[in-house]
């Protein structure tokens, strides 16, 4: 031991004498430059290892599980018809928002269906088998209402709309209001129509505000009030509703609920015409020729 201590080995000053004595008589076999990673005399636990002594990945089993979710992913069966229906749904909602006439909406949908090499009946059958969203229920109700790809059934159409409306789907609520107003698929009930329009207007529906305006103007389901009708039409028009624009222009043209103002009437007819309303063009021609 004394011979070993005479050798010119540099030992850190922080090492205690007790620790130095822990070296065995065979310590001359230990590298004098650095302790071997296999020397566990200084390790408090045999499981504690200094990371990355030999390679950047000292634990070959560290990444046994792949980070990619692909081994656990089960791809859904492709359904090209769903893509077509989803596009039809977007078109339908856009045209409803613009207050396009139902017959014109049918023409637009039929054109898209034909362009995609399918038929209205195939779309109807798909919707019939996939009533799992409120949107699909609503467009299915429209198909039944108009007899698009199927036999017309106003009662089934109304029941589908009412189901969706009771779950707060706004488009369905608006259409339920129309159904009660016209008596299509259900009994005619102006009070119920007014209430449904009011409900959608409270949610910010431009269509609902137009329906309310109509009820106030003609006293349908509520007390007649042309001033409230004007306010509702104006709100609807400013939100982009085409029929709100038309009826607001009419109010200014005829001085209903406000003073007559032909400049404002022309302005709102022009806005309606820009949104695709041919009726507005006819009224514009009358006013500009005077």
Observed structural traits:
TPR-like_helical_dom_sf, Sel1-like, Sel1_AlgK, HCP-like protein, 14 helices, mainly alpha, 290 residues
What features would you describe in this structure?
By secondary structure, the protein is an all-alpha fold. Helix 3 runs antiparallel to helix 4, helix 10 runs antiparallel to helix 11 and helix 13 runs antiparallel to helix 14. Helix content is 57%, strand content 0%. Belongs to the sel-1 family. Pfam families: Sel1.
Category from helices, strands and their pairing: mainly alpha
Strand content: under 5%
Q: Please tally the β strands and state the result.
A: 0
Mean pLDDT, as a whole number?
A: 81
Report the uncertain regions. Answer: 1-58, 60-75
Let me know the largest β-sheet. Answer: none
Number of H/I helices? 14
Radius of gyration: 39 Å
How would you briefly describe this protein structure?
InterPro entries: Sel1-like, Sel1_AlgK, TPR-like_helical_dom_sf. This protein is mainly α and about 290 residues long. It has a domain at about 80-170.
Strand and helix layout:
Layout: H1 2-6, H2 17-21, H3 80-97, H4 102-115, H5 120-129, H6 134-146, H7 154-165, H8 170-182, H9 190-202, H10 206-218, H11 226-238, H12 242-254, H13 262-274, H14 278-288
Helix pairs in contact: 3-4, 6-7, 7-8, 8-9, 9-10, 10-11, 11-12, 12-13, 13-14
């Amino acid at each position: 031991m004394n011979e070993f201590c005479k050798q010119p080995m540099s030992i850190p000053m922080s090492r205690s004498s007790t620790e130095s004595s822990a070296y065995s008589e065979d310590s001359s076999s230990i590298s004098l430059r650095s302790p071997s990673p296999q020397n566990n005399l200084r390790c408090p636990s045999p499981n504690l290892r200094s990371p990355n002594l030999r390679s950047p990945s000292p634990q070959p089993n560290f990444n046994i599980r792949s980070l990619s979710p692909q081994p656990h992913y089960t791809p859904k069966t492709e359904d090209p018809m769903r893509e077509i229906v989803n596009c039809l749904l977007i078109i339908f909602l856009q045209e409803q928002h613009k207050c396009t006439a139902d017959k014109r909406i049918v023409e637009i949908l039929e054109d898209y269906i034909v362009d995609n090499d399918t038929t209205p009946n195939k779309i109807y059958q798909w919707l019939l088998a996939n009533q799992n969203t409120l949107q699909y229920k609503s467009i299915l109700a429209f198909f039944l209402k108009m007899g698009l790809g199927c036999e017309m059934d106003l009662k089934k159409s109304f029941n589908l709309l009412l189901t969706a409306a009771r779950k707060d789907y706004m488009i369905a609520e608006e259409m339920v209001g129309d159904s009660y107003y016209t008596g299509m698929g259900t009994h005619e009930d102006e009070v119920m129509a007014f209430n449904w329009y009011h409900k959608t207007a409270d949610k910010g529906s431009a269509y609902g505000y137009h329906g309310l305006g109509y009820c106030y103007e003609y006293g349908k389901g509520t007390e007649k009030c042309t001033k409230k009708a004007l306010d509702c039409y104006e709100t609807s028009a400013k939100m982009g509703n085409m029929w709100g624009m038309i009826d607001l222009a009419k109010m200014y043209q005829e001085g209903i609920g406000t003073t007559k103002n032909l400049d404002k009437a022309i302005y709102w007819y022009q806005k309606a015409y820009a949104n695709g309303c041919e009726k507005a063009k006819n009224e514009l021609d009358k006013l500009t020729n005077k």
